[in-house]
Design goal:
InterPro entries: Ribosomal_Su5_D2-typ_SF, Ribsml_uS5_D2-typ_fold_subgr, RNase_P. The chain has about 120 residues and is of the alpha/beta class. The protein is about 40% helix and about 20% strand. It has one domain: 2-Layer Sandwich (Ribosomal Protein S5, domain 2), CATH 3.30.230.10.
Length: about 120
C-alpha cells in the first residue's frame, strides 16, 4: 500500500497559500504548488467555523478518501492543500470526489491514466 505524505508545518501551508495556484468550487478550495520531491504531499484544513469536531473530522476523512482513491491520477511532484467550505457539510463521498477531480483538472495536475500506462 502506498504511503500518503502529509503537510503538517504551518510555514508549508503559508507557502502554498501565498505562492500556490488555487481553484475553488462548491465543496472545497484546492491549492497546489510544485515541490522538489519525487512525490506528492497532502495538507488538509477545516476551520473551526465549519462545525464541531465530529463534523470537521468527517470532512477530513472524506478528503483523505477522495485523494486516496485517485492518488495515482495526480502528477507527481506537487504539494496540495484542501480547504473545506461550509457547503461540504452533508456532502457524500462521491460529491467530494467529483469536486476534487474537477479542481485538479482545472489546475492541470491530473494526468490521464491511459497516458501513464502507454508511456
Amino acid at each position: 500500500m502506498k504511503k500518503t505524505y502529509v503537510i503538517k508545518q504551518n510555514h508549508e501551508f503559508r507557502r502554498l497559500y501565498h505562492r500556490g495556484k488555487s481553484v475553488a468550487n462548491r465543496y472545497l478550495v484546492l491549492y497546489c504548488l510544485k515541490n522538489r520531491l519525487g512525490h506528492n504531499r497532502l495538507g488538509l484544513t477545516v476551520s473551526a467555523k465549519y462545525g464541531c469536531a465530529v463534523e470537521r473530522n468527517r470532512a477530513k476523512r472524506l478528503f483523505r478518501e477522495a485523494y486516496r482513491l485517485h492518488e495515482a491520477e495526480f502528477k507527481p511532484g506537487f504539494d496540495f492543500v484542501l480547504v473545506a467550505r461550509a457547503r461540504m457539510q452533508g456532502a457524500s463521498c462521491a460529491d467530494v470526489e467529483k469536486a476534487l477531480l474537477k479542481a485538479a483538472r482545472d489546475l492541470h495536475v491530473v494526468q490521464d491514466v491511459k497516458e501513464g500506462m502507454n508511456g
